[in-house]
């Protein structure tokens, strides 16, 4: 569809990483009492409506017997109300808010009110308010399930069906017939002439199928890949002759045999896709492709495939990284030491287990610029840092699962790598 959507989809793996990280963090919090507030706000619910509901809840909360819990609940609610006043209306996909007194580890009564808001990857379908001893993250987890759109094309020489499949929904969008005669000619026609006519008709029909595929799979649904099926060898010939738009031709996820073609064939293929878990494997296949390209670049000797944290960050900052790959279990973090006197910044990329030592070491030494003693340290998730820089310089960033075989290949190269736009002159 639009180019902005194109751009966005490239950030999928990063957004997914950040959201998963936040969900894990929220899921591990347990309140001192029944005092953690969760609110799911669907896209079209008026903000004033939800605010008045929360004001009611605050009124009810005045009956809570425990002083500490009552204060915590009321603080969480008023903080949430203040936050909601920043919105005229909910974002397109709605909004989830988690707010409550988070234990600090220093004992009862030292909890701090914190608020987290999330715009989920797809529209919220429920209205939910909960005050509990934990945050209600399950609905958000459900919304994180993959909802990439996949195109299904089922064809033989007689008919073709085009359908789309997302995480939890599918439909047949179009079906067409070829009008091409069967293989056996009528009496009176010469065999050669019959064959030639039939080939022409088939050729015209395959172009028609390809036109529909472009219209539906690219213009209307912007699919991430297609699955092609049908009885017999027609589908293979169709793919081999490259009738399809190159964007679809290059994104064939699977080719499956089916007994039917047309819309019945689409149904049959979707059953097979579900049985064989093809959708679940799809991100894995994407990652395979990305890693394969990267490893290829590393070993061609052209110098465009690089790895290692310092090399990659250097390339990224200097604007010659096209694509940065990082595994989601990378243990590096960015440590920033800032001088409060002259604002001088020291930046270190270190392994998590060196953090305490390195931080103490840097903070206990004077500022290298002004010799001031007032230094402050900030720790930043390395993937969030890579994202910031990537956006600034216009590079792409892909977060790869560290648990897979592909992830292991990247792990053996330091869990981070990049493909460069060009080889820098040194
Ligand atoms: Zn300084």
Can you walk me through this structure?
By secondary structure, the chain is an alpha+beta fold. It folds into 3 domains: 22-141, Translation, Eukaryotic Peptide Chain Release Factor Subunit 1, Chain A (2-Layer Sandwich); 150-182 and 202-280, Nucleotidyltransferase, domain 5, CATH 3.30.420; 287-420, 60s Ribosomal Protein L30, Chain: A, CATH 3.30.1330.30. It is built from 14 helices and 16 strands. The strands form 4 sheets. A 5-stranded mixed sheet has the order 7-6-5-8-9, with helices on both faces. α3 (47-61) runs antiparallel to α4 (67-84) and α10 packs parallel to α14 (405-411). It starts with a helix and ends in a 6-residue tail after the last strand. The relative contact order is 0.10. Mean pLDDT is 89; it is low at 1-11. Bound molecules: zinc ion. Residues 339, 341-342, 344, 367, 369-370, 372 line the site of zinc ion.
Strand order of the largest sheet: 7-6-5-8-9
**CATH superfamily heading of the largest domain:** Ribosomal protein L30/S12
- Count of alpha and pi helical runs: 14
Return the structural class. alpha+beta
- Residue stretches low in confidence (pLDDT < 50, at least 5 long) are 1-11
Helix percent band: 40-55%
């Amino acid at each position: 569809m639009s180019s902005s959507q194109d751009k966005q989809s490239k950030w999928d793996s990063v957004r997914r990483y950040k959201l998963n990280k936040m969900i894990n963090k929220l899921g591990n919090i347990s309140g001192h009492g029944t005092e953690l507030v969760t609110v799911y706000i669907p896209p079209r619910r008026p903000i004033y409506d939800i605010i008045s509901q929360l004001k009611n809840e605050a009124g009810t909360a005045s009956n809570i017997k425990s002083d500490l819990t009552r204060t915590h609940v009321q603080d969480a609610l008023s903080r949430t109300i203040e936050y909601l006043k920043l919105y005229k209306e909910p974002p397109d996909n709605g909004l989830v808010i988690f707010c409550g007194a988070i234990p600090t580890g220093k004992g009862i009564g030292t909890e701090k009110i914190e608020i987290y808001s999330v715009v989920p990857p797809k529209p919220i379908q429920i209205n939910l308010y909960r005050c509990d001893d934990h945050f209600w993250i399950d609905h958000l987890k459900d919304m994180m399930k993959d909802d990439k759109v996949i195109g299904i094309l089922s064809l033989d020489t007689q008919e073709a069906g085009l359908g789309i499949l997302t995480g939890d929904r599918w439909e047949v969008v179009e079906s067409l017939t070829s009008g091409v005669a069967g293989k056996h000619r009528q009496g009176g026609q010469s065999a050669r002439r019959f064959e030639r006519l039939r080939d022409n008709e088939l050729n015209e029909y395959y172009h028609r199928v390809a036109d529909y595929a472009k219209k539906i799979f690219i213009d209307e649904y912007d699919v991430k890949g297609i699955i092609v099926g049908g009885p017999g060898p027609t589908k293979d010939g169709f793919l081999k002759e490259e009738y399809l738009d190159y964007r679809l031709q290059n994104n064939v996820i699977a080719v499956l045999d089916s007994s039917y073609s047309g819309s019945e064939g689409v149904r049959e293929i979707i059953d097979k896709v579900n049985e064989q878990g093809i959708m679940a494997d799809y991100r894995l296949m994407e990652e395979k492709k990305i890693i394969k390209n990267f490893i290829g670049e590393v070993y061609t000797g052209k110098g465009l495939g690089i790895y290692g944290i310092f090399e990659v960050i250097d390339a990224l900052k200097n604007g010659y990284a096209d694509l940065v790959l990082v595994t989601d279990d990378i243990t590096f973090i960015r440590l920033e030491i800032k001088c409060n006197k002259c604002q001088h910044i020291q930046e270190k990329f270190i392994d998590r287990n060196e953090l305490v030592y390195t931080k103490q070491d840097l903070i206990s030494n004077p500022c290298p610029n002004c010799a001031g003693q007032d230094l402050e340290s900030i720790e930043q998730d390395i993937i969030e840092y890579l994202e910031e820089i990537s956006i600034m310089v216009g590079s792409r960033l892909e977060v790869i699962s560290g648990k897979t075989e592909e992830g292991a290949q990247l792990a053996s190269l330091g869990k981070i790598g990049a493909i460069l736009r060009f080889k820098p002159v040194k």
